[in-house]
């Protein structure tokens, strides 16, 4: 319930953020529910109209621990105060707001692809084509949003805000930021009239994210919406939930919540099944060599399919069990992905699932 209230509030703040500084919208665009009038010429922003900025290679992944949204925007002095919070390692500030796409209100961030890519899910961050498309002024949709709206790659869509340009869909992927549906380039964000510096994300490895969230809220004020991303775990789909619970029973002492957390981080519960830049595949992102040793025929069809969640999820349980999950869970998760930030993220999400379903 706490997360639902937070995400609802976040969505409302983003909607307000777009309109709070734009009271002239109704007059300039007419009384047509936000549709552009003859005085607001439509345009199409496509890759062939601009020279795409060079996208810097991915140097590191920066897991976001706190997201804050302020309708009036975040000032430079506030950003510096957040940077000085003990154990805060990195901060990124983005423009954003609420727009209309295919008749639905969605939330959008306008970002620098070279910087923002580090803050997304690992498989998304490594997708060079995705960020090159964004740099070429195409837009990127969260995988769930693209699925719900039946968006098609390569097709132009009208994004309605202060103006209504047509922008080509350049890619879809799990973004890893709750209630953010689209990413556009900063140039497209300017054309749309998004609110400058409406949100910031904070990376504070090793710190208690709840404590960081409280300190960020103290800096930005009570009107800001601050979300502890380590505990804002989305609910897995019912079929995946059942698979996680069933698979955990094959390894005494392993909680299904750990499998759910890994499934979320690795593929957003089957939303992005790869291949990753390293060659990992499937909903639990196994390397083929590892799969040959630990793959499971979970559905009894006579084959162990790395892409099938009925096989991949029990295989993940088997791998964690073989890695000593009953004795040292941290070590077992580290064996799954050799990164301390990854282990902390998985264990935090597992705790969030446990609280939600307790």
Explain what you see.
- This protein has 358 residues and is an alpha+beta fold.
- It has two domains: 227 residues, no CATH class; 120 residues, Lysozyme.
- Helices cover 40% and strands 17% of the residues.
- The protein is built from 15 helices and ten strands.
- Helix 10 packs across helix 11 and helix 11 packs across helix 15.
- The two termini are 13 Å apart.
- The N terminus is likely disordered.
Number of contiguous helices: 15
* Helix-residue proportion: 40-55%
- Order of strands, main sheet, comes to 3-4-8-5-7-6
Can you summarize the main beta sheet? 6 strands, mixed, barrel
The backbone outline, from C-alpha atoms, is globular
What percent strand? 15-25%
Low-confidence stretches: 1-13, 15-52, 233-238
Instruction: Provide the succession of SSEs.
Output: HHEEHEEHHHEHEEEHEHEHHHHHH
Amino-to-carboxy terminus distance: 13 Å
- Give the number of DSSP strands: 10
Structural class: alpha+beta
CA-atom Rg in angstroms: 21 Å
Number of separate structural domains: 2
